[in-house]
Amino acid sequence: MKKPILALALAASGTLAVTSISAQEQTQIPGTMDVSRVAAGSYALDPAHTLVEWSVSHFGFNDYFGLFGDIEGTMTLDPADIAATEFDITIPITSVAVPSEGLRDHLLRPGEDGAEPDFFGAEPEAARFASTSVRQTSDTTAVVTGQLTMNGNTGPVTMAVQFTGAGQNPMSEAQTVGFHGRATIDRTQWGVSYGAPMIGSEVDLDISAAFELQ
């Protein structure tokens, strides 16, 4: 009798495991890539869940990565008129995060004896990106062009943007829309020329943004 009882126990255990997995699979993720969920209105960035990653070639050997956080900004969006979308984003330079504290100090070190800093200086103004045009390229993608102001210099930046999800955030209960954006800039055009071209002039930007409906 022991073998049949053991077999029944194992079968029951397997059934419970399958039922548990099925229940997990049926749990709906709050944000989905469904454009019909996007509401028109004014949005504000979620600074706790928005990041700008940058990468630059280090002497041609490999790429070095860093992040900016605590980003603030607004977006006006009407799914029926994507071309009218507007972004105004502010990136605090002093939020820069890298694994090396020594490098972070260097990035924010003021120039000595009145000289220009190597990178941003100890109290740099925040960088600001303000869109000037949005061109829809598919149901979920667009090309956004705007002006980036940084280090006292302003110049054009074009980025490819992809819609990644919309829905209600279960924590804040705010209707949320997410995007990924990619762009490449020549840092020397914004007065960040230390080590160029051995340290790459071109900087790749990878943006992950969450906007909450106000």
From TrEMBL:
<dbReference type="InterPro" id="IPR036761">
    <property type="entry name" value="TTHA0802/YceI-like_sf"/>
</dbReference>
<protein>
    <submittedName>
        <fullName>YceI family protein</fullName>
    </submittedName>
</protein>
<keyword id="KW-0732">Signal</keyword>
<dbReference type="Pfam" id="PF04264">
    <property type="entry name" value="YceI"/>
</dbReference>
<feature type="domain" description="Lipid/polyisoprenoid-binding YceI-like">
    <location>
        <begin position="42"/>
        <end position="212"/>
    </location>
</feature>
<feature type="signal peptide">
    <location>
        <begin position="1"/>
        <end position="23"/>
    </location>
</feature>
<dbReference type="InterPro" id="IPR007372">
    <property type="entry name" value="Lipid/polyisoprenoid-bd_YceI"/>
</dbReference>
